[in-house]
Amino acid sequence: MREMPLAGLRVGFFGKGGAGKSTVTVLLARGLSKEGYRLVVLDADSTNVGLAEALGAGPAPKPLMDHFGGMVFSGGAVSCPVDDPTPLQNSDLDLGDLSPRFLAESPQGIRVLVAGKMGDLGPGAGCDGPIAKIARDVRIQESGENPVTLLDFKAGFEDSARGVLTGLDWILVVVDPTTAALQMAVHLQQMMKKIKEGVPPATDHLDDPLMVETAVRHFTESRIQGIAAILNRVPDSDTEAYLRGKLKALGGPPVLGTLPENRALQVQWLRGEEVEAPPLSEKVRSLVLAFEALVDPG
To answer: Alpha-carbon distance 83 to 208, whole Å?
Structure first.
């Protein structure tokens, strides 16, 4: 029987705006599914839309924010992890018990959940910190299965600064051919290193000692194992060599592999179609195998 070293992992995808992290999330989900993994994709991007459609799962399901009672800014129970680091209650979700309203599924059996979207909340709803708390704390369970959970975070660095890294096993940062993308990869590497070294989070804004203790505990009990980069939208071998060399020189994360520029993917996103790129299938499979080797080198 084939070894499945990624089973049960929570893997977060990060990247600057336009790097293509949602595209890479979709392609990796398909690649992992083809290799026999059970997949759950959690859309943790508070603003971007279309991930369920891109996976072929149809319209997006209702957000988990509704399942958990709404965000505190609108009178609900889900608070921002920066102001209130206490764990989300009842965050272990068994897919068999979850209402079908909160779950979509692709023809390949990839399940899709949505943490929440700011566009649904109206003016004055507050920040999207509560959506980050759902992404940080939700654990997907399934009877008889040990699914891989892929979390697609919003563009930029904000969610990682809110502590979502502490709830992940691995970080995959998507790097396109820009200086900003290289810098973000290095910053994420440095943040992960500090978490693993036990550097405490900022807590000067918290007046309650119990809140401070809780915030620190999230970081000291972090499950994060490592980080890797995926080069995306790379036009040629010279650009790939430059990106690899620059990441190494800056002390950035190791590179799993490279995906070339593919205009068909951009058109599919524009039209709201299922996102797939058969010419990239071997590249995607190589990424999956490289990730398995990184997680379980033995």
So the answer is: 11
d(CA 295, CA 46): 29
Rounded distance between C-alpha atoms, residue 196 and residue 225, angstroms = 8
CATH (one of 3.40.430.10, 3.40.50.300, 3.30.200.20, 2.40.30.20) for 10-293:
3.40.50.300
Residue 294 in tokens: 């990184």
Domain ranges of the chain: 10-293
Sign of CA dihedral 218, 219, 220, 222: positive
| Distance set, CA 1 to CA 169, 285, 289 (Å) | 24, 18, 16
Question: Minimal CA–CA distance to 75: which of 63, 88, 66, 85?
Answer: 66
Q: Which residue has the tokens 């272990």?
A: 92
Question: How far is C-alpha 269 from the chain's CA centre?
Answer: 19
| pLDDT above 90: residue 213 | yes
The tokens describing 290, both together, are 């490289």
Q: Where are the alpha helices (DSSP H) in the chain?
A: 21-34, 51-54, 64-67, 129-137, 158-161, 179-196, 209-220, 237-249, 263-271, 281-295
Instruction: For residue range 69-126, list pLDDT tens digits in order.
Output: 998 888 888 999 999 999 999 999 999 999 999 999 999 999 999 999 986 656 656 6
3-class SS of residue 252: coil
What is the number of other CB atoms lying within 10 angstroms of the CB of residue 68?
23
Tokens, residue 122: 């109206």
Strand-strand pairing, 111-114 and 104-105: antiparallel
Identify the pLDDT of residue 76.
86
With contact defined as beta carbons under 8 Å apart, do 13 and 29 qualify? no
Amino acid symbol at 103: L
